Amino acid sequence: MIRPRRNRKSPAVRALVRENSISASDFIYPLFVHDKDVDEAIDSMPGCTRWSIDGLVKEAGEAYALGVPAVVLFPAIAENLKTPQAEESHNDDGLVPRTIKALKAAYPGLCVITDVALDPYNSDGHDGIVVKNGDDLEILNDETVEVLCQQALSHARAGADMVSPSDMMDGRVEAIRETLDLEGFQNVSIMAYTAKYASAFYGPFRGALESAPKAGDKKTYQMDPANSREAIRETLLDEEEGADILMVKPAGPYLDIIAKMRETTTLPVAAYQVSGEYLMIKSASQDGWLDEKAIVLESLTGIKRAGADLILTYFAKDAASWLK
Ligand code: PBG
C-alpha cells in the first residue's frame, strides 16, 4: 500500500520533506511615521503605531536585530500640508526624507524602502492629481507621473535604497527609472506595485493615514479584483519598464495572482499582506478566537508557497521573533 503518511511521521521527517519555509529575511516591515514627538496608537489597526521619527528608528532597529532586512515608510501628513498638486510629496526637507536620513544614520545596512504615490499629500486623497468634471473625477496620468518622478528623486537624494511606486499610473516605472538614472541614482532599486487591486482590504490603512479619497474611488487606476490576465499584462510591462521587484497586493485573497506572476517573470515577486488582512487576524485573535501566532505563520507560509519571495507584513517583527 502506498502510504503518504510515512513522510509525515515525525518532526525530523517532516523537516526533511518540507517544501517551503519562511524566515525573517523574507519580510519587509511597513511603518507609519508622523511629524510629532509622540508615538500614537492607530485605532483602525490595533497593535500598530504612528511613530515619531525617533520611535520609528527604534522600532526598525528592533526588527532589524531580529533579522528583518527592510522597512517601507508610510507618512501621515498634516492636513495643512496637503494640496491639489501634492507639492509636499517632493519636499527634500519633508517627513519621509528626514526619516530616511535618521534610519540610514542609525542602521546603514538596513534596506530603506519608500512608497511613491500622492495620496498622503494630496488634498483629494487620490494617488494622482485630480481634475473635476462636474461630479466626475479624472485622475491625470502623465501629469502625475512627473510629480512621482520628483518624489522618487527626493527619496533617493535622502538615501533611500529602494522606491516603491504604489500609484498604478501607466508608464511610471520607466519614467522613474529614467529620472533616477539621469540624476546619478542608478543603484536605487524600484519595487513596483505591479498588480495592485482596487481592494476594500485597504480600509484600515487609509484610517491610519487619514488618506481616504475625499470623493470617488480608485477603480480607474487600481485593478478590478475580478481580473487575472490583466495582472500578466502589468507584469510584462513593469518588467520591460525596468522594475527590479514586482508586487501583488493584497496577498491572501490573491494567491492565484502571486502564483501566475511567479510563473511569468524571472524577477523576484513580493506580496503585500495588507491592513485589512492584518486587522482580520488581529481582531479574531484578540478574544482568543484564533491562535494569533499559528494563524500568522500559516498565512505567511501560504503566501510564500504561492510563489512570493518577499512579504510585506505588519506582523514582520512579531513573526521574526516567533521564528527565532
Ligand atoms: C497608497 C497605498 C495604499 C496602501 C499602500 N499604499 C492604500 C491605497 O491604495 O488606497 C495600502 C496598504 C494597506 O492596506 O496595508 N498608495
Automatic annotation (TrEMBL):
One GO biological process term: heme biosynthetic process
PROSITE patterns with a match to the protein in the record: D_ALA_DEHYDRATASE
Pfam families xref list: ALAD (PF00490)
Reaction(s) the record says it catalyses: 2 5-aminolevulinate = porphobilinogen + 2 H2O + H(+)
Record-linked SMART domains: ALAD
Top-level taxon of origin: Bacteria
A molecular function GO annotation: zinc ion binding
Pathway: Porphyrin-containing compound metabolism; protoporphyrin-IX biosynthesis; coproporphyrinogen-III from 5-aminolevulinate: step 1/4
Gene3D superfamilies linked: Aldolase class I
Active site location: 196 (schiff-base intermediate with substrate), 249 (schiff-base intermediate with substrate)
Protein family according to the UniProt entry: Belongs to the ALAD family.
Official protein name in the record: Delta-aminolevulinic acid dehydratase
